[in-house]
Specification:
- The protein folds into three domains: 12-85 and 512-567, no CATH class; 115-199 and 207-237 and 406-509 and 575-635, no CATH class; 248-402, no CATH class.
- The chain contains 28 helices and 14 strands.
- Strands 6-7-8-9-10-14-13 form a seven-stranded mixed β-sheet, sandwiched between helices. Strands 1-3-2 form a three-stranded antiparallel β-sheet, with helices on one face.
């Protein structure tokens, strides 16, 4: 059941449905302990519930523990336990940031403590023989004393770009599977992963597309790591980002109504043509559900029939064996895979529902356009509420075709010490706009078959991998200095244009998510959801829906009769940023333009990277090296025993420090 509990300002009732007097007693004792600030007793009571096999009570106590650790207030009254979320207005920016940081730190330390991660870190920190010398990950950390000395010398020479390039010369290195570092022999992917563990939050692999990037320093023989970055599949829904791009239906429809054109009318029709062409229909034709002429001239009856097919197939999908569904989804990539996927209950349902939606849109457009797309037809379409609703569904479909193809989220972006003291994070962010990154993305994903689209079409569907925009969010609910003020004039690459590539602040997220719940709590809530007969099925099968983990946690909270909307609102909205890489970014992402007009020429990959790096040297580093306090901080990052270098993964527990290679 879905909780619709919407509290007024103030306290929220925490009254899980435990159906067990012993469980309610344990929960009440936990609440009283947490009210006293005794979290250890809460942990022991959760363990007691676990030993008793009382899953709902253990999950409820764990939820309580996590929310209190996240800053929620608690009280015990005659009516039971009540909670109140942190009052952000009373906390102040610094306190809010520290509270969020502490929550992420808990998850990070939990991860670092796992045997597998500790073993991985130790393996990279242990010296091994490569090319006649002993090396380790420490060889990829720049010694701050040496760097500070060279920067002092560059400052005395006037801090010109040429002088600074003798100290730091940034280059990009794409992490490709199986490739190794030329100076240490370490796998590039393992190098990236090691430095990712130095971040404030836990490292979590994400589904979908993922491309990792290393920024290295060619001014030093060992080519140390300046920073790391990664691009990944973007979140499906982000209001601030979608408004910036123009994916919000109201924006598109208002623009079309105010400036109607035949091209816009043709664009709406093309979305339907393309969509129908990417739906496998042979089985529907063979079964008599529809006829070929229905694809051009649909009727309400055929739309109704397809909706019924979708309903029956969806029910059959959820009645089947989840293990069999997963086996089919993750089966061998043979030539018949997509046809087999299309005939599965899951994608038969999705095909029928999608086709019904497209044919309804065609029915409405046929009535409005009266034969062919035109300005008058577009006006008729947008003049009615039903026409605008249909047009809005087509805008959303155009978005779905481009959201994971031409747009990427910056998942990781930052510098490691000593470069982080020199605004290296801005450098990494700037270099992500380089054609080298665009070209590497295209190289990796051109010809890549879209899983969902191919499963619906019953044949391989490859969308062009033309990266035209990047988006990202801050870790904390405040603007990031790393992205502030970044502007790369296109003239630095030798063009005569007066344009510039900018990181734009777009707004904030709504603050929903599950990071406030520990890995253990999340698992318990998912177990609650799995065992509940009344819960909506979440089978963890790709194509069934977005973010199955979040859906399962929500269902677990609802099953316990806890207000999921309240507890999944972690109260930490993040700042959203976007950067456009092309002049016609919006038209490409809406599917209007097929050709991309990039700000920076894609053919000039490495040369443009060097030009952007030079701009960073001149715009940011030249000023930074004038400050003695900055160079002092740089000099403190020493690769000497015992190693306290800031780029080393910080362990939650003390352990023996490995020695450096012999000099």
């Amino acid at each position: 059941m879905r909780s619709r509990f919407t509290p007024k300002q103030g306290w929220i009732s925490f009254a899980p449905d435990l159906a067990d007097q012993e469980g309610e007693t344990l929960l009440l004792r936990s609440a009283r302990a947490l009210k006293r600030g005794d979290s250890d007793s809460g942990e022991r009571l959760a363990a007691d519930a676990s030993r008793a096999g009382n899953l709902p009570t253990e999950a409820a106590i764990r939820v309580l523990l996590d929310l209190i650790a996240h800053g929620w207030q608690i009280r015990v009254v005659k009516r039971g336990v009540q909670l109140r979320r942190p009052l952000e207005a009373d906390l102040g920016e610094a306190v809010q940031r520290e509270r969020i940081r502490a929550q992420h730190q808990r998850a990070r330390e939990e991860q670092i403590r796992t045997p597998a991660v500790r073993s991985f870190i130790r393996s990279l920190e242990t010296r091994s023989l490569f090319a006649g010398r002993f090396v380790s990950i420490f060889d990829l950390m720049r010694d701050g004393r040496e760097l500070a000395a060279s920067l002092h010398e560059a400052r005395r020479a006037g801090a010109t770009v040429q002088a600074l390039k003798r100290c730091i010369r940034p280059v990009l290195e794409m992490v490709r599977e199986g490739e190794s570092c030329a100076t240490t022999g370490l796998k590039l992917g393992e190098i990236w992963r090691y430095f990712r563990h130095t971040w404030a939050n836990a490292y979590v692999s994400v589904p979908g597309r993922s491309m990792m990037v290393l920024v290295r320093d060619d001014a030093h023989a060992s080519r140390p790591i300046i920073g790391i970055a990664s691009l990944g599949s973007p979140v499906v829904q982000s209001t601030a980002r979608d408004r910036w791009i123009g994916w919000e239906p109201d924006i598109v429809l208002d623009s079309a109504a105010n400036n109607p054109s035949a091209d816009t009318a043709k664009w709406f029709a093309s979305i339907i043509d393309r969509g129908i062409g990417e739906h496998s229909v042979d089985d529907f034709l063979a079964e008599g559900v529809l006829k070929l002429r229905d694809l051009k001239e649909p009727t309400p009856d055929v739309i109704k029939a397809l909706d019924e097919v979708a309903r029956l197939a969806r029910d059959q999908h959820f009645r089947g064996d989840p293990r069999e569904r997963k086996r089919l989804t993750e089966g061998e990539l043979d030539e018949n895979r997509w046809e087999r996927e299309a005939r599965s209950d899951l994608f038969r349902s999705r095909r029928a529902a999608g086709l019904a939606s497209l044919l309804l849109a065609r029915l409405v457009l046929n009535e409005a356009f009266k034969g062919s797309p035109s300005i008058e037809g577009l006006r008729r379409l947008l003049a009615s509420a039903s026409g605008r609703r249909i047009a809005a569904t087509l805008v959303r479909r155009a978005k779905s075709e481009a959201v994971g193809i031409s747009l990427a989220d910056i998942m990781v972006c930052g510098a490691v010490p000593p470069y982080s003291h020199l605004l290296g994070g801005k450098l990494v962010a700037m270099l992500l706009t380089s054609p080298e990154v665009v070209n590497a993305y295209s190289e990796r994903y051109s010809g890549s078959e879209s899983v969902i689209a191919s499963s619906i079409a019953g044949r391989p569907i490859c969308r062009p991998a033309r990266l035209v925009a990047l988006s990202t969010t801050s870790l904390f609910g405040i603007p990031l200095n790393q992205y502030t003020g970044i502007k790369i004039p296109t003239r630095v690459t030798g063009t005569s244009s007066h344009e510039a590539i900018r990181y734009e602040r777009l707004g904030t997220t709504l603050g929903f998510g599950s990071f406030q719940f520990s890995k253990l709590t999340s698992k318990l809530l998912i177990d609650v959801q799995t065992r509940a007969a009344s819960a909506s099925p979440v089978n963890w099968v790709f194509g069934e829906g977005v973010n199955p983990r979040m859906r399962a946690i929500r269902e677990g909270l609802d099953t316990l009769s806890l207000p999921s909307d309240e507890f999944l609102n972690h109260g930490s909205p993040r700042v959203v940023y976007g950067v456009s890489l092309a002049r016609n970014m919006r038209n490409v992402l809406l599917g209007i333009d097929r050709d991309v007009d990039y700000f920076l020429p894609p053919a000039e990959g490495a040369a443009t990277t060097a030009a952007i790096a030079d701009w960073w040297l001149d715009r940011w580093l030249a000023k930074r090296v004038q400050r003695d306090d900055v160079l002092e901080r740089v000099a403190q990052e020493r690769v000497v025993f015992p190693i306290r270098h800031g780029a080393r993964v910080k362990q939650p527990l003390s352990e023996e420090l490995p020695l450096l290679p012999d000099e």
